[in-house]
Amino acid sequence: MNNQYDITDEILDQVSQIMEKLGQISAYGQLENYPRLKQINRVKSISANLLLEDIDISAQDVNAILSSNTNISGKEYVLNLKNAFDEIDNLNPYSIEDILRVHGIIMKNISQNAGNLRKKALSLQNEEGGTLVCPPPHIIPELLEQLMDIVKNSPQILVRACVFQYVFEFIHPFDDGNDIMARFWQTVILSAWKPIFKYIPIEDVLFDNQKLYHKTLNQSLANRDTNSFIEFMLGMINKAVDNLIKDTHNHLTHSNQQVKALLNVIESYPQSSAELMAKLNLKSRNGFRLNYIIPALEMGVIKMTLPDKPTSKNQMYYKK
Question: pTM for the full model?
Fold first, then answer.
């Protein structure tokens, strides 16, 4: 298994940029304070992951599936991936047992061999017409053990996550679901280091650069060129962090305007949604909750009379 790489100037530059930008995000405070933004980015991750698997499902469809019992084509894929994301905090990024468990979650009712390593030989044809002969099944457990040792001992966590994805794609340990597992487990490794990565949809950037992503992966595997893939993936992570900075800024700017309007009409005594909507001349209860109430609650400037029952019909709000 050839996984040698050099820490090039390009890699050092990308790592430095990402670290600096992660510091900028920290200045906004914990993303835990912005549940709407977290939800939007989780939807992007799920949708882009499935689109990269040629499962045609939009972010709007994913959102509809997650927020209701809507029967939309691809629902099983969405719910499986959502369940996998829900498990991230419970996963050991260096556990093969956890990798098998998550594969079982993502491929539940989709693959007959969900959660099990492949038992057959496998060759992959890429878009350039080349063929990659994957390692034989009997050495897959050993290669996964070696992969975990490599990843644990890599000098920098961002590089570590990219190396994992590259080598995992080379091993191709499952009958199917390997690409989505490689991307997902990269997120597991990064989020164990910085929890914010749970909500940075790197997959969304990969989908926007899908052709280049597949070309770089295929060529780097064919040429055993780990460096090319590391440099490419660090660039994608860099763009994804850029996007989060922009989205967080836009989220706060947009929220601030609407929260300011709400604070102009809300009183220090409890009022219902209907009363507040009338004062703001709003018609959509859902829009009022998403764009006014939730941001104001996130900022801690209003309170609920029934905090343990946020969606109660008897809920009322007052200025803190």
Answer: 0.81
